[in-house]
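Entry type: protein chain
Record version: 2
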Amino acid sequence: MTRRKWAVLLLVGIFLLTAAGCGPKEPETPAAEADMTADVIVVGGGGAGLAAAVSAAENGASVILIEKAANLGGNTLVAGGAYNAVDPERQKNVPMNDALLAELKELVQRDESEFGEFAETFRVLKEQINEYLQGDTSYLFDSVELHMIHTYLGGTRTDLQGNTISPDFELTKILCSNALGALEWLEGYGLEVSDSISTVLGALWPRTHGVGGGRGLIDTLTAAAEQNNVEILLETAGKELITENGRVVGVKAVKADGTELILRANNGVVLATGGYGENPEMRAQYNTYWPEMPLTMPSTNVPTVTGDGIIMAQQVGADLVGMGFIQLMPSSDPETGVLFNGLWGSAETQVFINKQGKRFVNEYAERDVLAKAALEQEDGLFFIICDAQIAGGRNLDHLIEAEDVIMADTLEELAEKIGVPVDTFVAEIEKYNSYVDAQHDPDFGKPNFGNYKITTPPFYATPRSPAVHHTMGGVKIDTLARVISTEGQPIPGLYAAGEVCGGIHAGNRLGGNAFADILVFGRIAGESAAQKK
C-alpha cells in the first residue's frame, strides 16, 4: 500500500461518519422529556461550532456541543490555516510593489455603477486610494472597503442558467469589519498568529495571516471551550430539529452506537455542520455552475461534511441561498483531493505549468477561475513549479519519497521527470522570470509576483488537479446569524454559522475568507443564541 493510500485511509478512519439521509421529511412530534438540557445546543464541532459554543458561554449560557465524528475539528482541522483580515499593524511591514500599485490605479477607473449595493463602498474606496496615491506609496495599501470590494468581485458569479449572485452586502460588511477583532479574540485565548502577511491562493490581496494551520485554530478553540465549561459530546450526530409552536427548542441526535438522544435548548440551537462537499448526490442535485459535477470527483473535505444541517434546517422551513454554486480547489491531489501532500508558497510565488510545458492562467486569480482553466488542460492536470527559495528549507523527503513532489537539480531534468517538453518548459520558466523582473505579465496579467523567480536549485514540481472544496450555498441568515425562513422571517430559536450558511461569499469564496467567516459569524451566532435574539 502506498503512503498516499495509507494517508487517505487514515483520514477516513479518523473522521468516521454517521450517514445522514438526504430526502426531506416532516418533523416528528417532539419528545416529552429531554435526555439533556442546556441554554444553547451547538450542532457541529468544527471551527464555527466551537466559536459559537465559546461565544455563547462567554455570554452566560450553558452550552452542549455535539459532533458526529470521533474528534473535533471538521473541515477546519484539515484546512491550511489562511486567515484574511485588514491588519494595519502587520501590513505596514509589507512593501508595495509596482504590480499592486497598477492594480489600484486600474481599480479606481471603474464606474461605481458596476458595484450594485456596494457602490457607496466603492466610492469611499476610490477616495481612499486616491488619497494614498498622492502620498507615500512605499507601504502596502489596504482597507476594510477594499476587502469588501474584493469579496464582491470574487463572489459575483453567473451560473449556467443565467442566474447572477453577489455577496450579501450587510453580511460582507460584518465579515470584513470584524475579521481582525475575531482574530484578536482568539489571540486572547492563546492563538499564535504569524506577523508575516501573504496571499493565499485566490485571496486577491496580501492580507492573509498564518494561524498555525487548522490544527492551531481548533486546538485554541477547544481549550477555550473547556475553559468556558462547554460540554462536548463526540460521535453524536444531529438528526432532526425539535419545534414547539414554531420555535426550535432542541435537537434529536443519535450516537455512534445507535443510542437516541433528545437535547433540549432553553434559548436556541446553532447549526454549524459545514457544507455538503462529501455528499456527491447532493452536489449533483444542486450544481448549476459547473458543466459537469461527477459523483466520483474527489473532495478536500472530511467525510462527515454531508449537508446534515442544511437538510435539518429545510425540514423546519429554512430558506436556502446560492445552492447551485460549488467551489473547486484547483491545487488538490489528483487522486485523493487532499491539500497537504504538495509544495507551494504564497500565490505570488506560484507558477502553473500544464502537460505541454506551458503556463495557462494568471496564478493570482480567484479559485474558480483557476479551476476552470485547469479543467481545460489535458487530463485536468498541471504542475506547481517551485525552487529552493520558495521551498524555504522545508524537509521534503517524505513528499519526494511518496512521489507527491518531484525534485530535480536542473530545470531540464525536472521537465524530463514530469514528462513535459524540455525546451518548451525551460523557455517558459525563463520567460516567467523575465516577467518577475519587469513586474508585468503580458501573457495572463498576473498582478503580483513578489520578487520570486524560479532560479535556485533544486527545483520542484507538484502535480495538481481540481477537487470539490467549499459548497457556497446553504441556509439563509441575517446579521444576527438567525436562520431565515422561506417566508422571509427569522425562525425563532435557530441560528447558523460557517459553511452551512449561504449568501456571504455568493458564487465564489476568496481564499482566506473562510476562517474569518467561521470566527466572525460563529461568535455572533453564539451570542445571539445565548441572548435569544
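Comment: The CA atoms of residues 409 and 458 lie 5 Å apart.
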